[in-house]
Write a structure and sequence with these properties.
The protein is an alpha+beta fold. It has one domain. Helix content is 38%, strand content 17%. A hairpin with a 2-residue loop joins β3 and β4. The radius of gyration is 29 Å and the shape is rod-shaped. The chain starts with a helix and ends with a helix.
Length: 69
């Protein structure tokens, strides 16, 4: 009688997981942020960099401190 109880328990556990998986809403774990940074061209080498990474001095855009020199 013990093996039958075990089979019934395993069946109900499997059915519970199957129902949970079937009716659960999919969850997106990765949230994508919309990129609001504009791409700006360096005044010296013309490489495009995001606005938040650009070096701006005297209304000119530079991709790095090396181009600023």
């Amino acid at each position: 009688m013990g093996i039958i109880k075990l089979i019934i328990i395993v069946f109900f556990v499997w059915a519970g997981f199957w129902l949970l998986k079937k009716f659960r809403k999919p969850v997106d774990h990765i949230e994508q942020k919309s990129s609001t940074n504009k791409m700006l061209a360096c005044s010296i080498c013309k490489v495009h960099v995001p606005e938040n990474e650009a070096v701006i001095q005297d209304d000119k855009v530079f991709c790095s401190k090396q181009c600023l020199r």
